[in-house]
Amino acid sequence: MSQVVGIDLGTTNSLVAYMDGATPRVIQGESGRSMVPSIVAFDQDGNPDHTLVGDLAKGKLIAETGRTIYSVKRFMGKGREDLEEADIKQVPFKLVGGEKEALRIQIDQRLYSPPEISAIILRALKQRAETHLGSEVTQAVITVPAYFNDSQRQATKDAGRLAGLDVIRILNEPTAASLAYGLQKTKQGIIAVYDLGGGTFDISILKIKGGIFEVLSTNGDTRLGGDDFDQRIVERIREDLLKQYQIDLFELPALRQEARLVAEQVKCALSEQSTAEIVLSLPNKKGIYRREISRKEFEASVQDLVDRSTGPCLQALADANLKPEDVTEVVLVGGSTRMPFIKQAVENLFHKTPHSELDPDEVVALGAAIQANILSGDISDLLLLDVTPLSLGLETMGGVVSKLIPRNSTIPTSGKEMFSTFVDGQKNVSIHVVQGERELVEDCRSLAKFNLTGIDPMPAGMPRIEVTFLIDADGILNVKAKDLRSGRAQSVEVTPTYGLSDAETEAMISASMEHAKEDMEKRQRIEVQNEAETVIRHTEKALKQGKDLVDANEQRSITTALAELKEALSRENPAAIREKLNRIDEVTQSLAEKLMSRSVKEALQNKRLDNI
Ligand code: AMP
After folding, report:
1. What is the CB < 6 Å shell around ligand 1?
2. Residue 276 above 90 pLDDT?
3. What's the pLDDT score for residue 420?
4. What is the pLDDT of residues 307-323, one digit of tens each?
């Protein structure tokens, strides 16, 4: 059987690992390095045979600035509106794409999608594995940050497919890291995985019990990583060059790239020693710029970046209903956790010495190889569970969201709810899938819309429409709507053309907290109005149908109650509407008992889907 490999497709670097017997191993390239820089360099005519990947492409960062692509993971599964000006300014290559369009990278006259660029990196890793193993590699487990949304996961899967790989699982990076540390052997405990890589920060809180991992909560910041630390050194250089040489680094792309590379080297040196020297040769015979920087000075300039990781850590703990003291193990992932003051900050936060025995750059790939092994059937006693970052729901009458899968649900998961129609004889319903924490559709993100047609025409509230949300182990959502009477069903796999940035995810969560009270009030107002409209229609119909069943007195009290309800509804006063609804309930009790079948009564309480 061919070997299934584990791939860590990183923002800065990517790695491929496999199981050598019972030991996971990262595969090294000819140079003896295990990391492949996630960089792709194109030549002038875009000849694929001349495209360079990894270290070779890194060498082109300076000379071929606009044709050398890095940090493409930041753009996976995203649209133009998911990016801020700063994201676009930070990279020297051209990003194009209109509103509601997937993003493209323009190189000369050609356009590439982020998955296409990632596929070139994946192909290089596949080749590396095939050379090492001496056989074809066709299947892989690929890791993604825990916060990747549906669209970003899909984009990663697409990249795998484009590279000729069957992606048998998309695995969250922190889950992989926990596996690499073999923490499943711990009988019971809470693990915090602190992952500070090149471009992203993720914190995940996992629970282990009886060899089973469960991700309790995740949080993070897609705009925080080692690159930002480099940038602080670049800023220092820029200030100096402006002052001393009147050179603006940002106007000289090649020099800017060089400064970025030098800054990274200096940062890494400062993890080992207390001072380092910045050396940069300047263009136009301006000589060489030199400056000494101490670890203390560097640490002071990035203190706010370190502090920015604290908020998501505390939020993740709060989401899991835990306190820092409850954490029993802390795992460090990502090259940036080599910085001594990051280790110290994590230790201070969780009151635990974090695990850092394994190479923080390799842990995720090693874990992916272990997962690949599990899936190919060699290990069967291990189950991995992840969670959904945002709630998923459906639009119901009046633009109210009915949540089918709450945020932080363990995946794979499913949610099911019964809906009905709103008007008599309704044959179609529109299914609108939304994502977010707010109560109203207008405040959530629209993921997909589709129609269920061919419902047998029936009185409003009678059809029974079952809507099922299913999130598979890769975090991809499938929505199915079924008319239980006709048996007609319609389903979609939710694949938006662009996704939600982690910053947006976070913003949606915090907005839901901020607006919780007003949202709830708005929702209640809409719901009570919907209910009143339905009750008015049904009562009028019941009065007509049951004329012979009521005496004049009863008839009068029902008509009066109806008029009062209509009046309260026109004033949009929720409390009055509720009071009048109760009154109608009282006065129609006897008529309802006589007239309404149990199913109609049930239908009155059903949630309705809008007509289309
Ligand atoms: P990753 O995305 O996990 O590959 O992390 C790469 C990031 O780790 C880059 O920003 C590197 O500059 C950073 N990094 C690697 N080694 C060190 C080190 N010794 N000290 C500080 N940062 C490092």
Report:
1. 10-13, 197-198, 226-227, 264, 267-268, 271, 334-336, 338-339, 361
2. yes
3. 87
4. 999 999 999 999 999 99
Q: What are phi and psi of 139, to 5 degrees?
A: -125, 145
The larger pLDDT score, comparing residue 64 to residue 349, is at 349
Last residue of a domain, one of 351, 385, 419: 385
Looking at residue 498, its pLDDT comes to 38
Q: Give residue 510's pLDDT.
A: 63
Q: Which one from 195, 221, 230, 483 is the annotated catalytic residue?
A: 195
User: Which protein residue's CA is at the shortest distance from atom 20 of ligand 1?
Assistant: 268
Active site residue 8: yes
232-246, 347-361, 526-540, 598-612, range with the lowest pLDDT: 598-612
The DSSP annotation for 454-468 comes to: -PPP-STT-S-EEEE
Q: How many domains does the chain have?
A: 4
Whether residue 494 is contained in a domain is answered as yes
Q: Is residue 508 part of a domain?
A: no
| Residue of minimum CA distance from atom 19 in ligand 1 | 268
Domain boundaries, position 237: 226-305
Ligand 1 centroid distance, CA of 114 (Å): 23
Q: How confident is the model at residue 516 (pLDDT cuts 50, 70, 90)?
A: low
Look up 610 and say whether it is catalytic.
Answer: no
Annotated catalytic residue, options 58, 60, 64, 73 = 73
Number of residues written out for the chain: 612
| Atom nearest to 10 CA in ligand 1 | 2
Residue nearest (by alpha carbon) to ligand 1 atom 15: 335
DSSP line for 70-112:
E-GGGGTT-BGGGS-HHHHHHSSSEEE--TTSB-EEEETTEEE
- Asked which of 122-131, 417-426, 507-516 is least confident by mean pLDDT, the reply is 507-516
- Are 91 and 179 contained in the same domain? yes
pLDDT tens-digit readout, 536-566: 888 888 888 777 888 888 889 899 999 999 9
**Cα 117 from Cα 57, distance rounded (Å):** 12
CATH of the domain at 286: 3.90.640.10
Tell me how far the alpha carbon of residue 261 lies from the centroid of ligand 1, in angstroms. Answer: 12
Q: Please tell me the distance from the alpha carbon of residue 203 to that of residue 174, in angstroms, as a whole number.
A: 8
Relative to the CA of 270, which ligand 1 atom is closest? 20
- Which residues are 171's β-sheet partners? 143
Q: Using the mean position of ligand 1's atoms as its centre, give its distance from the Cα of residue 198 in Å.
A: 6
Q: Which residues of 281-305 are buried (b: 16+ CB within 10 A; e: fewer)?
A: ebeeeeeebeeebebeebeeebeeb
Give the per-residue pLDDT at 495: 46
57 lies in some domain:
yes
Give the domain CATH number at 600: 1.20.1270.10
Distance (angstroms) between ligand 1 centre and the Cα of 194 equals: 14
